[in-house]
Amino acid sequence: MDHKEIHVNLREDMVTEETRKLICSLPKDKDSQGNLCKYQGCWYYYNTLQAVINFQKSFQPQDTDIILASFPKSGTTWLKALTVALLERSKHEDDPLNHPLLSNNPHALVPLLESSTPDLTKFLPSSSTRLFSTHMPFHTVKEGLKGYPCKIVFICRNAKDELISRWYFRCKYENVEVTRSILESMCESLCRGSTFYGPIWDHVLSYWRGSLKDPSHVLFMKYEEIKEEPYAQLKRLAEFIGCPFTEEEEESGTVNKIVELCSLRSLSDLEANKTGKTLNGVDYKFFFRKGEVGDWKNHLTPEMKSRIDMIIEEKLRGSGLSF
Ligand code: PAP
Q1: Residue 322 lies in a domain
Q2: Structurally, how many domains does the chain consist of?
Q3: What pTM did the predictor assign?
């Protein structure tokens, strides 16, 4: 595997002269992987900043677009699968084996708006609704939507579980041993706020406030709630994106079929997810691990736990949100 390919986000070779000038005026920091700069309150590696700017300048929204937003490692793959399955459900009744999720990883079906290697031409073959994903914060996405009334679904996950998930993912794709010292340095960056797409609290709060202000266009979901009550949460998602389940569908078990199709176990068993790779060369199998709530308990020291909890609690105080 081409090591450089994997690190396309971390590289700085796609940055235009204009963006270079902008970067000079932005706050800068470093994490153990590369240089970061803070644009509109969010930390990016330089190539990703370029992709964000490209999106804000050139994206041509349509009223019916749906954007799936998340902080990395918060349930992006799952949300993509569930939304694809909802939009596609009526089209595969006669030929269920022809379902796009059976032969594609969810990431291949839902392009990232701020991709360094964009492929915004690939949409679900039978869908008129365009689905996109993003890790940008709410205000940055809104700027690129230029006033179009697109729907945005955000998925939030406990910050400690997100950290553990990101730790394992990073070690796998870098092909290095999963060590405590990497976790410690990642925990430090998380607490300082200077992580890729962070600070996590500002990121999550941007969508939380967006959802309170405009609930018909911004849906705020939680990974833990989908785990806890997948049936109810899937119905909520279906209603929000404008394709609610009919009574017949509920009676015939369609809701449960989608929950099952999109479960970690089913998806990770598929050949496409066992052997495929993203455009940047990351194995799809790395996107599926345990999918458990509270896995942080197996890895974080009491000190790490209370430090993260204290910071998040302070940052969220008065917002009405906890995660
Ligand atoms: P991304 O932001 O890089 O796309 P994302 O999908 O958000 O990653 O996060 C991966 C996490 O979601 C993994 O969590 P873990 O490390 O704690 O196990 C992964 O296992 C979990 N995940 C992936 N697919 C599913 C699914 N279908 N159901 C539940 N959890 C899932």
Answers
A1: no
A2: 1
A3: 0.95
